[in-house]
Structures are given as C-alpha cells and as structure tokens.
Amino acid sequence: MSGDARAATTLAAASGTGDTTSGPGTAQRPARRGGEALHFALRNVKFLLGALVIIAFLVVAVVGPRFTDVAPYDYVGPGSAPPSSEYWLGTTTFGQDVYTQVVLGIGSTFAVGLLGGGLATVIGMLVGFTAGYRGGWIDEILSMLTNVFLTIPVLAVIVIFAAYLEIRGIVVEAALIGLFNWTWIARAIRAQTFTLRAREYVDLARLSGVGTWRIITREIAPNMSSYLVLVLILSFGGAILNGAFLEFLGLGPTDAVTLGSILNQAVQWSALQLGAWWWFVPPGAAITAIVGALYFMNVGLDEVFNPKLRAT
Fold it and tell me: Taking the CB of residue 167, how many other CB atoms lie within 10 A of it?
C-alpha cells in the first residue's frame, strides 16, 4: 500500500529517528510537535480541502434528514420522476425518494467507515505495539498470526461471511471489515516500535520500573501520533470502500440504507438503461468525494508531518 509506505517515511521524519535526547524535555516534544503540526495543517490547501469536504458531508448526514419526513423506502410519488422542487433528487422506479435515501445513506456509510476503520486500527495497534516492544517469542507468534492473515484474500472471505449471515447490521458489516484489515497496520507499527524502543528515554522508563503498556502509551505512542492519524484516515477510507463493495453486491446491512445499497438497487432495476441517472449518480459521486477527500487529507497531513515534503 503506497499510503502505508509514505506514512512510514513521515513517521521517521516526524519522530526524529536520529534524536536520542532524553530527560525532562523529551516528554514535551510531542506536544510541541502537535502545535507545530496544527500550525502547518491550517495552511495546507490539500488538507483543508479534504477536511472541508468531509465536514460538508457530515453536516448533510446530520442536517439532511431534517428536511424529509418520509422513510427511505416509502412510496412518495410517481416512479422515475427526475429531480424537481418536489423531489430534490428524483424518485426511484418504485416512487421512492432518492434524496431521503442518499442523506441517510451518507450517515450509514460514515458509520461503517468509522467503526470498521477504527476497529482495524485498534487491532493493528495492539498487535503492532506488543510485537514491536516485547520482541522474542511474543513477536514471533504475533508476526506469524499477522502473516497468516496476510495470505487470506480479504474481500473474498468477507463476502463469504456476509453471504451466510441472514441478518446484517452496520455494526456486523463494520466488524467483518475491521477484523480482516488490520494486518498492514500491525506490520508498520511493529517496525516503527522496534526503532523507538531503543531510545534512551524508553530505556530510562524501563529501568525506573514502568510497566510495558505505560511505556507504550506514554513514551512510544505519543512519538507515533502523526503516523497513527494517517493510519486511521487510510483505514477509514478503506473501510468505506470495502463496505461499498459489499453493499453493491447486495451483502450490506439488511436494516439500513447505505450509499452502496442504493447503487445495488439502481443496477438491479436498470436505472442506467432507463436513463434514471439521478438514482445512481448522487450515491456514486458521494462515495467518490468522501474517499477522495480522505486521500487529500492524508496527502496534506503527510506534508504537514514530514518537514521534507512541506512547500517552502
């Protein structure tokens, strides 16, 4: 994954791999870097553009449903009606309001991305930090487990699991995505943890009797905060794409409307052949815009966290 390799480079620059300074000032470096990163982030066009698009979609997801009083699958008017003042995004072949489906679908899609991407990030962090810091037989076992999961064709396995579930909710879909998409995160964090655990301030904390997880959360993780942010954004976008893929195949949530499920129904009922572009263009454009905005945010933050990439 190109984003993973680019983020790893960013971490090396942001955490100062060659800096072995220890002492009281060490704990303050992440906070100072955080203020510096915010300063440059607010001046990075790519990050601001992506963030504004994501915020706009979040506003639509929260406020949009207030402008409709019908359920997504209610029959509200004539079938295949084009966008108008009465039906803002037109209607489906069965007279369902596309606007209602899209604004509710945006919220569901964000939920799948946050839950699935968040779960993958948490699992990857737990495995990566543990393997990288503890080393030895623990590292060997966790690395073997990671390599086993890496050989699994993720999308195929997720499709099989989803196909055998009669009832699928947003949480179930997100769990399936998160449980099979953490391996690249674990490997990247493990590699960086190997480097950071050799720092003098980590050795000092270890000699002082500080516990393993306290060292990881207080000494190592803060120095990887920039990388972890990039990882979460990448996981978020990946979970949205995986979720849209499942939903497009008709294996999405059975109790909620999502952008992918709207596309599935549009294809099922020949919206393209019938010329009902308003049925499939809005959800497709929304997925593209959300994932594209996350990519812009990732590239922008990459430039923010890595001084070598900042525009002068």
Answer: 8
| Residue 77 maps to a domain | yes
Overall average pLDDT of the 275-297 stretch = 96
Residue with the two structure tokens 């699992």: 123
Distance, in Å, from the CA atom of 288 to the CA atom of 123, rounded to the nearest integer, reads 27
Beta strands in 112-237 (DSSP E): none
Angle ∠(287,117,47) on CA atoms, nearest 5? 60
Residue 221 lies in a domain: yes
Residue 199 lies in a domain: yes
Q: Which pLDDT belongs to residue 40?
A: 77
DSSP lists the bridge partners of residue 75 as 96
Percent of the chain at pLDDT > 90 equals 62
Model pTM? 0.85
Arithmetic mean of pLDDT, 130-142: 92
CATH number of the domain that residue 182 is part of: 1.10.3720.10
Our count of domains for the chain comes to 1
